[in-house]
Amino acid sequence: MIGQIRVTGNHRFSTKKIIAASGLRSGAPARQRDLEQAASRLAQSGAFSDVSYQYRARGKTWDAILQVVEVQQFAPCIFDNFVWFSDAELTAAIERAFPLFDGSMAESRGMQEAVTAAANSFLSAHGIRGSTAIRPVFDLSHNLIGFLLHVDGVPMPLKDVQVEGGPLDAAAIREVAHGILSYDYSRHTAEYWAQTALTEEYQDEGYLQPHFSGPVVAFADPTGKDVSQGVVAKFLATPGLRYHWGGVSWMGDETLSAEQLTRLMVLSTGDIAGRKETLAGWDAVRQAFGRQGYLTADVAATPVFDDHAATVHYNAQITKGPQFTMGELVVDDPSPEVVKAVNAAWKIRRGEVYTTDAEKESRQRILQAQSRMRRADKRLALHRSLNTAAHTVSVLVKFE
Fold first, then answer.
1. What is the pLDDT of residues 211-241, one digit of tens each?
2. Domains, the chain, ranges and CATH?
């Protein structure tokens, strides 16, 4: 019979869990086939990149040794729309069926199949006719950050979004949430909405560092059973301070003075530091440089919060980049007369500094001449292409 069972090479998973997943049991008949099957189960689980075994006879018993190499990359699971259960309930249920589950998974077929089977079995046991789908979630740099577990085949329209904790009223919240309402509920989508659209709505009002917990799901069905009647996602808001404008410290290029740059900002000292107005100020600065030919000028603004005074001050680093000149003007039109007219209307000549003001004036001159070109029924399209090596601008003009 099998005597002692040991595991080597494990770090993430406990010996107890690995033995449970292997199917081996002390006191069971000792057959080599059982050890082979145990190693195969562990290998197929997807939690290990390599599994081997040894056994040593000790009188009438065998001591079994399982040698494992654990997969290195695991990512947390996100239970997307299992609205009937808590995360803790789901994790415990899957772990009972698949001992190597701890709320995280490896990107392996074996582990995904095991988790899917366990989740489906749990749904079925509760009378829920749905199936579990798993898909990886990546960040903007294409790094794996999690696995989304979603119940397919069970309609659950999102009927309303509620945010407690103020200061925005229900009508304002619904207006912001119109893009996700009436679609089926998704925790992942709801959280993304809170981190983006809802956060920006608070920031537009000067609440620059809001926090949202949730979502907590409530059923529209008063019995709490029929999700097809819809669900309500509830968030708790912690708005934080409402910040006022504390000014800007300008760093970097000196083409424009600090006074000139400050006058471009929409906000003045003491104003509510709304997000939209702040962004409009940075855009105005970029446009001011564009009017001098610095078409790639950028502003990197870092907020400095003074919570005692409820103000925000920005350190703005300006990178103006190169000054661009006019390169080639291409008129995509079969008529030589149109090509000639556009060239005559275009104000910036080859080698001259390419400014956004001159571009705007050139566009207006082409529009004014458009009817004479017999292109009045067409839309003027102007495509600007920057050569960052030569610091030149090529322009394509066409009527579409």
1. 999 899 999 998 878 899 999 999 999 999 9
2. 2-70 (3.10.20.310), 74-152 (3.10.20), 158-238 (3.10.20.310), 244-319 (3.10.20.310), 325-399 (3.10.20.310)
